[in-house]
Amino acid sequence: MKFKITENVDWVGKIDWELRKFHGEEYSTHRGTSYNSYLVKDEKIALIDTVWTPFAKEFVENLAKEIDLNKIDYVIANHAEMDHSGALPELMRHIPDKPIYCTANGVKSLRGHYHKDWNFQVVKTGDKLSLGKKELVFVEAMMLHWPDSMMGYLTEEAILFSNDAFGQHIASEHMYNDLVVQSELYEEATKYYANILTPFSPLVTKKINEVIALNLPVNFICPSHGVIWRKNPLQIAEKYLEWAADYQENQIAIIYDTMWDGTRTLAEQISKGIKQADDKVTVKLYNISRSDINDVVTEVFKAKAILLGSPTINKGILNAAAALLEMMKGLKFKNKKAAAFGCYGWSGESVKLLTDRLSEAGFEIISDGLKTMWQPGDAEFAQALEFGKAFAKKV
Ligand code: FEO
Predict the structure, then answer these.
(1) Average pLDDT of the segment spanning 172-193
(2) Which end of the chain is more exposed for a tag (fewer CB within 10 A), N or C?
(3) Predicted TM-score of the model (pTM)
(4) What Å distances lie between residue 176 and 5, 16, 130, 243, 319, CA to CA?
(5) Which superfamily is assigned to 251-394 in CATH?
C-alpha cells in the first residue's frame, strides 16, 4: 500500500494490523499501528524513516516498485528506534553509499544498533537540505522521546514530519485524522502521550513553543505512527501543550488488586463514599491484575487523584500493584493526590508500603490510608465509606 499526501510526497510505510504489544510487552496496541515512511520527490529524492525490522524486506521490495532505489539521494533517519530504522540494513544493502541524515545522537544509536559504518551526515536544528524547489529543515527534538529524536519541516508543502511526537497506535485504511472516529483517535493519542511522553512534558512544552514561534504554515503533521493530521493539524500540538501542563480531569481512579475480595469490596465502598461527598466527580474502579496496565496508566494521567489498594502478602503487596507503581514512578506524574488502602490477616504492611511508593512516584499523599483486618464487615464498610467521603473532600 502507498498513497499520495501531495503531488510530490508519498506515504510508503507499513500498516501493522496484528500488533497487540509494542516495546516488547510494555505497551498494548489494541488497534494495531503503522510505521510511517515518506518519500519526497523534487529535483532530489529523500526517504524519511523506514519501518520495523520484521517488515524490512517487504518494505524495500515495495519501495523498489515505486522508485529505482538508486534514485534516492538522501535517507533521513529522524529516530533510531527499531520501529523506524529497522529496515535501514536491508535498504542500505542496496544503496550502501547514500547519505543518512540524522542527529549526532542518531549516529551513536544507529551504529549501536546495526554496527554499520554508513555515510552518516550529522545535522542540527536549523540545518537545511535542499531538494530543489523545496528544502527540508531539521529540528532536533532531544528526548521527544529519545536523545536522537528529530523532526523535519518541508518548505513549500508546509509539512512537519514529527516522528513519534503526535503519533497514535492505530491501524486504519483511513490514514487521515478527519477520516477516523474522533473518540478512538483521541483515546489512542492520549494513551500514547500518557504512556510515552509524560516524563518529558517540560521538553514538550519548550519544543512546541519553539516551533510555534517560527510562525511557519503547517498544512500537514506527518507522524511516524498512525494517522496524518491534515484537518486543523495544529489541534494535536495544542492538545500536547494542554497535556504537558500537568493535565487532569475531574476524575478519581481507584485501582486495586485483591486476593479474596476484601480489598475489592473496600474499593467499592470507598467509591460510594466519594460519590456521596461529590456527585460531580467521575470515579473509575480498576482491578489492576485484570486490566490492561497501559489503559490504567491513561486513566491515572486523566485523574486528579488516585487510590491504590492491595492486601498484604508476605509482608508486601501484590505483583500487579507493584508493577503499576514501578511504571508510574518512571512516568513522573505531577500535581496528583493519592492515598492507599487494603485489608490484611496478620501483619498488614501493604498500606504503608503503597503510601511510601506512591510518594516516591511523586504523588501528594493526602491521607494515612485505610487498613482493615480480615474480611471487611459492616463496621469496615462504614469506615471505608467515611474514608471515601474524607478523601473526596480533601481532593
Ligand atoms: Fe520511539 Fe516509534 O519509536
Answers:
(1) 97
(2) N
(3) 0.96
(4) 10, 16, 27, 22, 40
(5) Flavodoxin domain (3.40.50.360)
